[in-house]
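step 4 of 6: structure.
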Amino acid sequence: MSEFLLEVKNLKKYFDTPKGKLHAVDDVSFSIKEGKTLGLVGESGCGKSTAGRVILRLLEATNGEIFYKGKNIRELKKNKMRELRKEMQIIFQDPFSSLDPRMTVSEIIEEPIKLNKIINDKEKRFERVLELMDLVGLSRRLMNTYPHELDGGRRQRIGIARALSLDTKFIVCDEPVSALDVSIQAQILNLMKELQQKLGLTYIFITHDLSVVNHFSDDIAVMYLGKLIEKAPAEELFSNPIHPYTKALLSAIPRPTLDRKVDKIILKGEITSPINPKDNCRFANRCNYVQDICKQTEPEFKEISPGHFSACHVFSDHLSGEFE
Amino acid sequence: MRNKVLEIKNLKIRYVTDDGIVEAVNGIDMLIEKGRTLGLVGETGAGKTTTAMSILRLIPDPPGEIISGDIILDNIKLLEISENEMETIRGRLVSMIFQDPMTALNPSICVGEQISEAISIHQDVTKEGAKEKAREMLEIVGIPGSRMEEYPHQFSGGMKQRVIIAIALSCSPKLLIADEPTTALDVTIQAQVLELMKELKEKLEMSMLMITHDLGVVAEVCDDVAIMYAGRIVEQGNLEEIFKYTKHPYTEGLFNSIPNIDDRKAELIPIRGLMSDPYNLPDGCSFCDRCDYALDICQTEKPKKIYFSGTHFSECHLYSGNSDFQLNCGKK
């Protein structure tokens, strides 16, 4: 058995559109160890949410392999996959639209336990619901309220309780705090961290907020137009980014401090269309360091220093990531 | 004498609904001088947008009611003039940029026409002249004039926000209100748009009211900061005073809630609880239920403004009689 809980190899997801093939996830590979968090960052449209969904087979991949505990789950039959879903869960971004407005809090949390026939005794099931509510810090008196009566933070707690209600080992968290105010966001992040330690959970944390991902993740993978362009341990990525896009992304974060140490790199242009992309570096037309080769061939995603991968023609040979 | 562009005095706004009265803005004062940017910071429901809308007199009535106060823009008392006069002011002296660039533009009219509309309403120009000016504006915000005839859906989010900025600035307003202008944009695009706004503000010598929840954005574009909580400005000062000499426990709580990008191990210290119910604000300090420093007096009496310098004040009982009190940065 491999040391990784989840291994993704050459994952591809293309969508058919009237204009051609949309390469949402294009040849992405990564792995996560049990109990760790991988942060998946990138701008809107880069394919990070699609990647999260494909991993859980909520969307079928076009190509590639997904190993969970050493098993290729893409080959599993429907009923086996359903069995596995007890361990693999997702938390959605929008706590307003991801909960059924006609169900009470306790019914929402109870539903997966009931459907998967985890606990068949009604009273015991109810006890489990209360236990879960305690676990995520939802007061028991809210049991019979409906989602619309609650604020965003509490709703996200329901989403978390629901994701934990089964035998959960692995959770894809798709922008779980983006819709929340900062003070509430901090509460939810702390809760998720605490739960990870308590229950030994493994997370894929999808977000566009780099300060959140830095705080939360062990490893960070950066996506651009369906491609993974850099991956490294969080500290390494922030202190020594290699890819020009990562550098620009890091420098663009507004920092709540008056003694700003980093100069902003303002990128030109915007993300291009992921439909029928050419076989070159997809960042080439926005890159400040672009060379001829970038416009001709696609850079390889390779290990530059132990654990630090990047896909860039220009910087791959410069270990320090410095370039004049 | 300093040049006041906007002055708000003791503004109170409430919404009368079937469920009760929401006290959205509860007596705020605000002053923006020429060429300065004031950041208005707070959580959802703090009253930031209501304050901004009242400057444009766009509070829906009913249910909204401005109970008392004065809003003075460029020496005009906005709450005393007629609706017709107000129409000549909106878009000319003050204009606003909204959070969501996707819904703020009319999808069935090309962008050039949407920009020239504002120009021909407020300026004495021919149709051709307005069009020419619109093209100029589009180029100022970094979009080629050749895209005049295109429709909003042909632009990306960042480009749409640029079009909206072009509309807002087309009549060179004295005051620009920007309500979370970059919240819906990606970070690299946000950086572009903020840079553009800073540049244009200087070029056109505008003042700006920047509404945001992001203290990072504040640090980058604002000169002064007002922290709003439950309809009151609980702390106000210049950038340095707010960031380095934080006085109000809520302001401190906001800083402690943000992940520190330069120190990933730093623990997040959330503000406990939730904002008090605006239908039923407490008698004392609205923040006292969530405050780790709360005193007995906080439960019963509303705190008054205490000044630490000519520009820096905080509404907090901790400093009454002891202006040297120090917050301990959440360390318990």
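step 5 of 6: annotate
 - Residues 319-324 of chain A have pLDDT under 50 and may be disordered.
 - Chain A is about 30% helix and 25% strand.
step 6 of 6: archive
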